[in-house]
Amino acid sequence: MIDVYYSRCADYRMENLNRALPEVLEPLLAAQGGVAGKSVMIKPNLLEYHRQDDPAAVHPQLLLALCRFLKARHAAVIAVIENPAVRTADAVVRSMGIMPELEKLGVTVKNCTGYEKISAMPEKCRNRQLEIAVEFREYDLIIDFAKAKTHAMMTLTCGVKNLFGLVRGSERLSWHLAVGRNFDDFADMLLDLYLLAAPQITLLDAVVGMEGNGPGSGDPVALGFLCASSDALALDASVAGKLGVNDTPVLRRGKARNLLAGFVDCGDVPQVHPVKLPEAPEKVLEWGVYFPVRLRKLLRKMLLSRPVVDKAKCISCGLCIRKCPPQSLKMVRKLPVFDYGSCIRCYCCQEFCPQGAITVASSRWLKGLSALEKMIRKLNITRRK
Questions:
Q1: Are 192 and 121 in contact (CB under 8 A)?
Q2: CA gap 276, 245 in Å, rounded
Q3: Which of 268, 40, 33, 237 is nearest to 145 (CA)?
Q4: Which CATH architecture best describes the domain 293-384?
Q5: Is 2-267 CATH 3.40.190.10?
Q6: Which residue of 38, 290, 292, 342 is surrounded by the most CB atoms within 10 Å?
Q7: Residue ranges of the domains in the chain?
Q8: Rounded to two decimals, what is the model's pTM?
């Protein structure tokens, strides 16, 4: 059984962090023989930091507390390494205002710099080759430092999804194009990436998470805990249950591939209200009816949710157009316009919009069929009574 350690933490005041961090990390470090004299790579979620306490990234005070924690336990080298989609890791950390403190600790902050295609993949991987940042091989200990956030494509992003930052930016676009609308294929790639990188510790910032239009433009939600485990997938499964998330592509594929080990919650396990999820990218109506292949494809096209633009929030920056893998967007009269026929529903546009102007919306057909389904189910229940 895999241990998943919890500690309640009401806020990011340093005294609370200094109490909570050892509670979740000390047992895991002990199992690794401690950290003294070792080189440590921290791979944090640094998607962006537009404003103070921005929930799109791990909190700066927690990142600082983690580095101090490792330094106090005599880590020889501490490096914060990330590959943000828009800015550099250095730029994001400087905007957080903690760079001077990190420099005093001797902590290095940098982007991933070297990449290589790995053809000798672990046995359980489905993909036979992945390109990944070589830094994960250069350190004695890797800490996968994730943020608890909803995600338009993957429903929830925690430990496993956070490792996608080890993939080169251009390769990320290629993966979105390769899997198209098959989110299970994307989840399989994330699981293979996790098996390859094999971080010894996964730490989750869930003091304040993100709900709604995640992972970049959602709303902060007080969750009040830290969580850590030696197994990122077990951590994801444990946390998903706490947040009221019953199913995600990563967990679904992890179970199907027998990668999800049994786990036990340890420590001060929190009681958390379910988070508000983004609009589901694709819903399946299970009526037990057989549809021919062509009809299924037509229905899928009609029922797929799609990204939409809020004209009042859009600032015409064009970032969504630059980040769209299939180039399904173009600027018309200072507003992005979608070509839904070529849109692969990767929601990169929604993820990177700095104003939260792009959201995921259900199609009119899906809303109508969902209403019809509810009516039919209600009618059947009434008849049984």
A1: yes
A2: 9
A3: 40
A4: 2-Layer Sandwich (3.30)
A5: no
A6: 38
A7: 2-267, 293-384
A8: 0.84
Task: Copy the structure tokens of residue 371.
Answer: 């209403």
The span from the CA of 84 to the CA of 319, in Å, is 14
Which amino acid, one-letter code, is at 283? K
| Torsion region of 230: left, alpha or beta (phi above 0 gives left; psi -120 to 50 gives alpha) | alpha
Per-residue pLDDT of the chain (385 residues; tens, 9 = 90+): 999 999 999 999 999 999 999 999 999 999 999 999 999 999 999 999 989 999 999 999 999 999 999 999 999 999 999 998 788 999 999 999 999 999 999 999 999 988 898 888 998 998 888 889 999 899 999 999 999 999 988 999 999 999 999 998 778 877 777 777 788 999 999 999 999 999 999 999 999 999 998 898 899 999 999 999 999 999 999 999 999 998 999 999 999 999 999 999 999 999 999 999 987 655 444 444 445 556 655 655 666 678 889 989 999 999 998 889 888 889 898 899 988 888 888 888 988 898 889 988 766 665 665 565 556 545 554 444 4
Helix pair angle (249-256, 183-197), 10° resolution: 70
